[in-house]
Write a structure and sequence with these properties.
Elements (H helix, E strand, L loop, with lengths): L35 H17 L2 H7 L6 E3 L9 E7 L5 E14 L3 E3 L19 E2 L1 E7 L5 E7 L1 H13 L22 E3 L2
Parallel strand pairs: 4-8
Antiparallel strand pairs: 1-2, 2-3, 3-6, 4-5, 6-7
Amino acid sequence: MSKFASNYIITMDDIVREGDPILRTVTEPVSLPLDEETLGEMDAMMLFLKNSQDEELAKKYKLRAGVGLSANQIGLNKRMFAAYFSDDKGVMREYALFNPKIISHSEAMIYLPESEGCLSVDRSVQGFVPRYERIQIGAFNREGEPVKLRFRGFAAIVMQHELDHLNGIMFYDHISKENPYKLPTGVQISSLY
């Protein structure tokens, strides 16, 4: 039985840090229909993201703010992640995706000028992380129904970061080893901001 039930308060002590083999593991697909345990774990992950973005609760539980959390970041070998962030119109968006995969993407790429951060990485990592500007994801929702979702800009970056986790890839794997600020050539790429 997983300790991560719906009402479990995930803290930074529950977040697996870089160096742990689970972060380099290609996660196992979750079985459908989803069982109560898996749904409870997803609820706990979403609650963490909401708490981490609430100033008072983040201070109370000593949380670092996060916009996405994949199951292997709390030590679970399951192909699922939660995302909670404000879209380009300032509307809060919430995604609980099971067995997600990219089904199409743009050729054009983008990157965050200040690099990316990660709840599993306790250090500042400098460098550009090239991502597709637009992606389409196929996944299953909480009800076990197939969904197709399109993302662009910041939302696309968040989704690719979390999908990478499920494939055992860390964001800094995308940063050029020779020059952290080197961008891919032969492709249209621009800064998000």
